[in-house]
Design goal:
Elements: E1 9-13, H1 23-32, E2 36-39, H2 45-52, E3 58-63, H3 65-77, E4 85-90, H4 96-100, H5 106-115, E5 117-126, E6 129-131, E7 134-137, H6 141-146, H7 149-155, H8 158-168, E8 174-180, E9 190-202, E10 222-228, H9 232-236, H10 241-244, E11 252-257, E12 259-264, E13 269-273, E14 276-280, E15 282-296
Parallel strand pairs: 1-2, 1-3, 3-4
Antiparallel strand pairs: 5-6, 5-15, 7-9, 7-13, 8-9, 8-12, 9-10, 10-11, 12-15, 13-14
Helix pairs in contact: 2-3
């Protein structure tokens, strides 16, 4: 058990995330480890509670990726990310970010809080809103709200892609221009223009059809995946997402970049930032290196590629 006082440690608890059966366990564990618990009741509470806890040494987010997102944005709004660490207590459906930083469950999360190594990782920024795991453009708000827990558990954020296609029955492509900045490993500044189904950006999340695929979250780069309109037939025909997003797909464009701008040449687009929605015609995205300090488990891999660069584009 830690020695911090309750005022040094605050836990923001989302009681309705996941299956909703985690509340008693989280409260008990939080009490044992010296946390003051603040329970969310409505949208925006996680951000507000975190901002109010800006003087704490550690703020834990007990919920899914959206709860983590709210806590991080709350601390950022209070200009406290440099002085306050964030811990992840996975109580959502998919818990992709928690998996990627080596946190395997509720009890393990508190073990990591006490004994885990602390790392400083990058965060993504989209029009001044932060995200820790991923940003997905092209989903619909309806599909986001109706995505089933089972799909999220199996597919992670790709479940929103699947449900968007299934909800619409057909898909109006997105006329986009995507301009990426030059990267540090020889990647040149480039522009892609065309019809896309989705644009997927990973900070700690990699889009290759594998739910748990981790990107390097300490390299100052975003991994960009553009799913071209030509993939529509495969998706509507029921092809496995792993096939559409696989490295051999002819309908995928990949980039690695510290920043980019996505412009819609038609209507505004809905983006999901760790599950929190942003609607805009133009979005400017960048990484903020070493911005977030958090305890990680033994399963966390700072460089998941072990020095080998992840293969980039297969098209475009």
């Amino acid at each position: 058990m830690g020695t911090d006082t309750a005022s040094d440690r605050v836990l923001v608890l989302n009681p309705v995330s996941g299956t909703g059966d985690h509340v008693d366990d989280v409260v008990e564990l939080a009490d044992e480890h010296g946390f003051e618990v603040r329970t969310t009741e409505e949208s925006g509470d996680a951000k507000r509670f975190a901002a109010a806890a800006a003087d704490a040494d550690l703020v834990a987010a007990a919920g899914g990726d959206g709860t983590v997102n709210g806590v991080v944005n709350g601390l950022a709004a209070a200009e406290a990310l440099e002085t306050t660490a964030v811990a992840v207590v996975p109580a959502g459906t998919g818990n992709n970010f928690a998996s990627n930083i080596g946190v395997r469950g509720l009890e393990h999360a508190f073990t990591v809080i006490e004994d885990g190594q602390r790392r400083s990782i990058d965060v993504g920024c989209a029009n001044d809103r932060l995200f820790v795991n991923s940003c997905v453009g092209g989903i619909t708000a309806e599909a986001s709200s109706e995505t089933s827990p089972a799909d999220k558990s199996e597919l992670g954020v790709l479940a929103y892609v699947k449900n968007t296609v299934e909800t619409l029955g057909s898909f109006d492509s997105l006329p986009l221009r995507v301009t990426t900045a030059a990267g540090p490993n020889g990647e040149s500044a480039r522009a892609w223009q065309g019809e896309a189904l989705f644009v997927l950006l990973g900070n700690c999340r990699r889009f290759d059809g594998t739910r748990t695929a981790q990107a390097n979250v300490e390299d100052g780069l975003l991994e960009v995946t553009i799913v071209e309109d030509a993939a529509t037939a495969d998706l509507l025909g029921g092809a496995a997402l792993e096939g559409v997003f696989g490295q051999d797909s002819q309908h995928i464009v990949r980039r690695r970049t510290p920043s980019l701008v996505i412009e819609s040449r038609a209507d505004s687009i809905t983006y999901s930032l760790d599950g929190e929605l942003l609607e805009t015609e133009t979005v400017s995205l960048e990484t903020v290196p070493d911005r977030l300090t958090l305890p990680v488990g033994d399963g966390y891999q700072p460089d998941p590629d072990e020095g080998r660069l992840w293969p980039l584009e297969t098209n475009g």
